Every structure is written in C-alpha cells, then in structure tokens.
User: What shape does this take?
Amino acid sequence: MSSSHDLFERRKNAVSRGVGVFVETTAAQASGATIIDVDGKKFIDFGGGIGVVNAGHCPPRVVEAIKIQAEKMLHACFHVSTYEPYVKLCEKLIEILPHGKKTKVMLTNTGAESVENAIKIARQATKRPAVICFSEAFHGRSLMGMSLTSKVNYKLNCGPFAPEVYRLDFPNFYHGGDGLSEVEYSDKEINKLEKFVITNVDAGSVAAIILELVQGEGGFNIVPVPYLKSLRKFCDTHGIMLIFDEVQSGFCRTGKWGAYEHYGVMPDISVWAKSMGSGMPIGAVIGKQEVMDAAEPGTLGGTYLGNPVCCAAALATIAVMEEENLNSRALVVGKTVMDRFKKMSEWADCIGDVRGLGAMIAMEFVTDRKTKLPNTEVCETLVKACLEKGLILLKAGSSKHIIRILSPLVISDAELAKALDIIELSLKEIIGVKKI
Ligand code: PMP
Assistant: This one.
C-alpha cells in the first residue's frame, strides 16, 4: 500500500467527513508550480491550493521573510501593541489598490472574514440592514459568508442563515445572452434589479451589493462590463455600498492587482485574501476612507488579524509579484491556456464554452451545445484522468461541470505546455477522438 493510501485511511479515521475532499491527492512538499505527494510522485499544480499561490509554492523571498519575522515576533495583537508590518502592509495595499482619493484598510485572516467585515462596515456606513448577492456566488463558510454563498451543497442543514440577504440572478452572458449584444443583455439584467427593489427588498434598506467580477467557485462567470457600469450607477443613485469580492480574482490572477481594474469601475469596499500571503492566513478589506472610517472604534478586529508573520509574508509576496512582473506573466499564461482550450473546443463538442480574464481561464462541459446542460461526467472523468497523469485540476460550477485554471503564475512555459498536453490527451481518450 502507498503512503498516500495510508494517509487517506488515517484521515478517514481522524478527520470529520464534513471536511470535503476536492482532489484525491496528498502533498508532502511543494515549490513553484510543482507538488510532490507523500509517495514521491510529482504533480503539476493547476489548482494552486484554490488560487492561493499565484506567486508560486514557497517563493524563497517569502519563506525568508517568514523566518526573519518569526524570530523577531510571532504575535502581539494589533489592538494591544501597534507593530510596523501591519501598518506597512496597509500602506502598500493603499499604494497598489487605491479606492478613490483616500483609501483605508483593515487586515483579516481569511476571505470569509474579509467578507464578514466588509458587510459590517457597509451596514455601519449606511445604517441599513439588507445585502444583495448573486446566484452561483461563493463568499466563504462563516455565517454571513455562507448566507451570501449560493450553492446549496455548501450549506446543507447549516441554517438558519443570516437574515436580510437577498439573491439576484448573476448576469451569466453565456447562459442568458440568447443572441443579445452584451449591452442589450446588461440592460435586461439591470431592469431585473430595478424590479427586484420593488418586489423583493426596498432599495432604501439595502446596505450593500456584493459580487465577484469573475465568479470563482461558480465557474469563472464574468460580469459583463456594461452591467457593472450600470450597477455602479444604481448603487450611487440609491446610496448602496458596492462591494467587490476579489478573494479569488485578486493579486495578479487576471493580469491586474484586482479584476475591477479591467472595468474602470471603483468599488466602495473590496475584499481580498488567498494569493495575498502565498498560503499564510491573511486577508484585507480595502475601502474609501469615509466608508472604512464609518465603523465605530472597537467594532472591527480580532486576536490574530494581521498577524506579523502573515504581514511579512504578504509584503514579500507583493514584492515578488512586482519584481517578477506577474501581472504581465498572467496575460501570457492566460493566452496560452485560452488558445489551447479554444483549439480543443474545435473537436470536442462537449466543450460548451471557453472563457476567462487574464490567467483565470475556464472550460465548461455541456451535454449539448444548444441546451447547454451541464456535463458533469466528462468533467469528473477528465479531472481523474489528468490526476493519474500528474496534473492537479479543480472543478467548479454548481454541477461540477467546469474546469478552472488557477496555476501558479510562475509556472514555466515547459510545465504549462506539458499540463495542457495532459488535458488534451485525457480529453481525447475520454471522448474517443483518434487524431486532431
Ligand atoms: N470569496 C471568494 C470569491 C472565494 O473564492 C473564497 C474561497 N474560495 C472566499 C471568499 C472565502 O475565502 P476563505 O476560504 O479564505 O475564507
């Protein structure tokens, strides 16, 4: 029996069933875009620990910064003793992600905590209770995060959920476009919102609208540009805080620090985590100063938020991203993946759509290109076949019928080509195509 098999057996005995297994792999070591399992088998990592290692696994500069900070001070609690790494990280975030004239930041441990705090801040800023979110959204596993999250399987029997959460259909152009132009489609969807605030919730009691510009767990569905511009106007008209969840799309993933920079639309508040700390638990809420300062002293915080070691890791991660110009690299990685996926869709009818922004690329599997019904089976089989050949792939979408690429951006051209060859070969085996 392999050590991986033993480890899974021990996991079964010791770890709650509720902690899901998304990919049947183990990991003993990782660097760059490679993971080595406990049997010594090498894998190319196209999942990046769910979008956390844009700067690669164990970037030497980040590891060094962690070591240096760990020897100086592991913890002080920012509420008790102000320390520089926290302030320095906030200053850096303001520099790379300004939100209007004056920006302020609070640090968190996770994406879910960033979401929780963004809602707390929006409620204090507006003195209103309601929040509008979207279908297919994922915002974390805390009570508010889970309430804002769409997919039922993530929250079976976990209710009651947080009150005053209202859900609107996500403007999914691939599924809803129906021959309309993006502008026409966006107008149609914004009209739904105008009706929504008559039939579902009064606009005057809405504190915030929260959305992912490229839905992560939802399958890389991209908000159309005209829709977002109209949403900004809608929020301005009604005094609603517009919150962008950039937890998965942030930190070079789309070829920019944040996906919103592609849109020319500024949020009031944005939430971040994942690739910000290369795996160390750190996140941030960034917002316009007047919004962030609407929070009363003492209403935001926590024992570990902005831990000094995590701050050092985040500062070093951002430095690596700047030095290695990972925003540009993301565009190259994204184009390479997109071109290959588009080619595959020429001979594989089960590919309904190939889409993406920067290096956030997805391929959606359908049973039929007309009905666009999800093809979970092909997706599942493909992920398994790729794993056997040494490639870790992640599924997405409410029917687990979409593969999404979240590879480290430091992946070499050779590794990238090899991984794409594995996908292509596996897909051919599954659908029985003899030659391209
Ligand atoms: N928002 C988005 C868009 C996410 O993708 C995730 C995690 N997949 C979260 C929030 C929650 O982040 P965390 O797991 O760090 O709490």
Residues 366 and 372 are 5 Å apart (CA to CA). The pocket of 4'-deoxy-4'-aminopyridoxal-5'-phosphate is lined by residues 50, 110-112, 115, 138-140, 212, 216-217, 245, 247-248, 273 (CB under 6 Å). The mean pLDDT is 97.
